Amino acid sequence: MSLHPSLQSSADAWTHSVEAISELVTPLTEGEWNRATPCPGWSVRDIVSHVIGVDCEMLGDPRPIHSLPRDLYHVQTEAQRYQEVQVDVRRHHTAPEMVSELEYTIIRRSRHLRNESRDPETIVRGPRGIEETLEFALRRRAFDIWVHEQDLRTALGKPGNLDSPGAHITRDMVLAVLPKIVAKDAGAPANSAVVFDVHGPVEFLRTVRVDAQGKGTIDGSPSLGPAATLSMDWETFVRLACGRVTPDAASDRLKTEGDPALVTAILTAMTITP
């Protein structure tokens, strides 16, 4: 048995990003592991710890028994507390220890994926203890690790891979939730349309349409007279969607038209990561 074809693209994207992460961090000096990243509250070491921890959980390893300090002010929700355990337990690990554990985890996880024979619809326990299909768990993992690869590239001043396999999975993951963001979270009026025009390494134009019942759908056709149009480059789109930058901080890279209140509501609701 081998990996189901519908899982292959996620496995390939994970492999591409995790190997890029390994190449980025292996030569770092001890001090460079402490560099801040765009991920709130996390250093380079913390992101690598998170990568290791999540993949270990997906391998079925038990979670560490660890009590979090009380002064982690970036930890505000239960989801964040859950994620922070794998991070905080490694905060005093040395650079060689981090590289060694990352390399070992990549070897184990790669072997596990090569031997994965379950049906894509199999229900598994994904990150944060959420039950989901194997297909969605692997797709979300590819999304997560590509975003963290970009966090590390930003922190280390080594841009790249903005159009890699993980970037395209990230695009699809974000586009899938745009109808909810526009119609429900931002409260776009019934019978309206909102256009997203994104350029750069990954380009697309999508229209979210809100029907008479307030339900949102998305397609690739342009809209005549949309309620709002949001234009930006691909990196800004990703950073907004992942909470790496605020709308105000990204204002010089945004071009918007239409209802200002609706635009603000959409940009405010756009963050989809915990």
From TrEMBL:
Residues 15-153 form the Mycothiol-dependent maleylpyruvate isomerase metal-binding domain. Residues 169-263 form the MDMPI C-terminal domain. It comes from the Bacteria. InterPro entries: DinB/YfiT-like, Maleyloyr_isom, MDMPI_C-term_domain, MDMPI_metal-binding, SCP2_sterol-bd_dom_sf. NCBIfam families: maleylpyruvate isomerase family mycothiol-dependent enzyme. Keywords: Isomerase. This is Maleylpyruvate isomerase family mycothiol-dependent enzyme. It comes from Streptomyces beihaiensis. One of its GO terms (molecular function) is isomerase activity. The keyword Isomerase applies.
